[in-house]
Design goal:
Elements (H helix, E strand, L loop, with lengths): L14 H7 L12 H21 L9 E6 L5 H12 L3 E5 L13 H8 L5 E6 L4 H8 L4 E6 L5 H15 L6 E5 L6 H10 L5 E5 L8 H9 L3 E5 L11 E4 L10 H7 L7 H4 L7 E3 L20 H19 L4
Helix pairs in contact: 2-11, 3-11, 4-5, 6-7, 6-11
Bound molecules: N-carbamoyl-L-aspartate.
C-alpha cells in the first residue's frame, strides 16, 4: 500500500446527506432515495480519484471492519477488504465459517454481538433472506449486507447503478434489460428496485421458471416503471441501453435436473452484440459461467470489468459514509 501523507480528505457537498448515512445499516436498497444515491455516487467518484492519484488515504485509520461471509465470494469480499485497506482501516476476515464458532452451533446474533466488540462495522453475507436485518437488530454498530440468500445484494445494486451512470452518463429514462435467473438473482432484485427511481423501462428476459418475483414486479409498476417480460434476448438486443446478464444460480435449485434444463438458456455472442446499440452497456455481476462469450470481452460496450472496479469505489464510499467520514 502506498503512503498516504497529504491525501485530501473527502468533502461532501451536502452535510445533511452525510449525516443520514452515519451509523446506518445498509440492508436493502429500498432505504435509499435519489438524494442518497447521488450522494454515495459522488463520494465514489471522489474515492476513484483518490485511488487513481495516490492509491489510498488514511480516512479510516484506526477503524476495523469485520468481513463475515457464510457463502462463497470472490469480488464482494475482496473488494470490501481492499476498500477498507485503501481507506487506511483494518479488516477481520471471516470467510470460512466452518472454521469459526458457527460450527459449534453459535447463533447469528451471538456471532454479530461478538464481532462488534472488536469491529466498528460488520459486512455480512448469509444464505437466508432477511439475515442482515436480523443482524442489524442485534448490533449497535452498522451492518452492511453483502447479499442475503435470494433476497437482495444492496452494495452490488449500488455499484451497478454507479456503473450505468458512469458508462452512459445518465440514469434517466433508460431501457434496461435484465437477462437470466431473475428469480434467484439478488443483484437483479436490488438493481431493479434502484432503477424504479429513474423512470426506467425494464424488460425481464428469462425462462418461465426463472421469472422476476411478482412482489418486485408490483413495486416497479407502482413506482411508474414500464415493465415487460419475454423469453427472448432478441426482443431487447436492438433497443436496450443496458443489458444486465446473470448466472443461473445453481446453488438455489433443489432439483439439479431443473438447473440443467435452464443453465444454458442464454449466451451473449459477438453476433448478437453486432445488433446492439452503438452506445450501450453490457453488464454482469460475475461470476459468469457461459452467459457471455469470452469473445465479447474486447467489445468497448462490455462493462463488466469496469463494473467490478467500481465496486471498490462504492464500498469505500459506503464504509466512509456509515462511519461518518465521507
Ligand atoms: C453475485 C452474488 O453473489 O449474488 N456475485 C457478486 O456478488 N458479484 C452474483 C452471482 O453469484 O451470480
Amino acid at each position: 500500500m502506498r503512503s498516504v501523507e497529504g491525501t485530501p480528505k473527502v468533502v461532501s457537498l451536502n452535510p445533511d446527506r452525510r449525516q443520514s448515512f452515519y451509523g446506518r445499516d445498509i440492508v436493502s436498497v429500498k432505504q435509499f432515495d435519489r438524494e442518497d444515491l447521488a450522494f454515495i455516487m459522488q463520494v465514489a467518484d471522489e474515492m476513484r480519484s483518490i485511488v487513481r492519484r495516490v492509491g489510498a488515504t488514511d480516512l479510516l485509520k484506526g477503524y476495523v471492519l469485520a468481513n463475515l461471509f457464510y457463502e462463497p465470494s470472490t469480488r464482494t469480499s475482496s473488494s470490501f477488504i481492499a476498500a477498507m485497506q485503501r481507506l487506511g482501516g483494518a479488516v477481520i476476515p471471516i470467510h470460512g465459517v466452518q472454521y469459526s464458532s458457527v460450527t459449534k452451533g453459535e447463533s447469528l446474533p451471538d456471532t454479530i454481538r461478538t464481532l462488534e466488540c472488536y469491529a466498528d462495522v460488520i459486512v455480512l453475507r448469509h444464505p437466508e433472506v432477511g439475515a442482515s436485518e436480523v443482524a442489524a437488530r442485534y448490533a449497535s454498530k452498522p451492518i452492511i449486507s453483502a447479499g442475503d440468500g435470494v433476497g437482495e445484494h444492496p452494495t452490488q445494486g449500488l455499484l451497478d447503478l454507479y456503473t450505468i451512470q458512469t458508462e452512459l452518463g445518465t440514469l434517466e429514462g433508460l431501457h434496461v434489460a435484465m437477462v437470466g435467473d431473475l428469480k434467484h438473482g439478488r443483484t437483479v432484485h436490488s438493481l431493479a428496485r434502484l432503477l424504479r427511481l429513474y423512470g426506467t423501462r425494464q424488460t425481464f428476459v428469462s425462462p418461465d421458471i426463472l421469472r422476476l418475483p411478482e412482489e418486485i414486479k408490483q413495486e416497479l409498476i407502482e413506482a411508474g416503471c414500464v415493465v415487460e417480460e419475454t423469453e427472448r434476448v432478441e426482443d431487447v438486443i436492438e433497443t436496450a441501453d443496458v443489458i444486465y446478464v446473470t448466472r443461473v444460480q445453481k446453488e438455489r435449485f433443489a432439483d439439479l435436473h431443473v438447473y440443467e434444463a435452464v443453465k444454458d438458456y442464454y449466451e451473449i455472442t459477438p453476433q448478437l452484440m453486432a445488433r446492439a446499440k452503438p452506445k450501450m452497456a453490457l453488464m454482469h455481476p460475475l461470476p459468469r459461467v457461459g452467459e457471455i462469450h469470452y469473445d465479447v470481452d474486447d467489445d468497448p460496450r462490455a462493462a463488466y470489468f469496469r463494473q467490478m472496479e467500481n465496486g471498490m469505489y462504492i464500498r469505500m464510499a459506503l464504509l466512509a459514509a456509515v462511519l461518518g467520514k465521507a
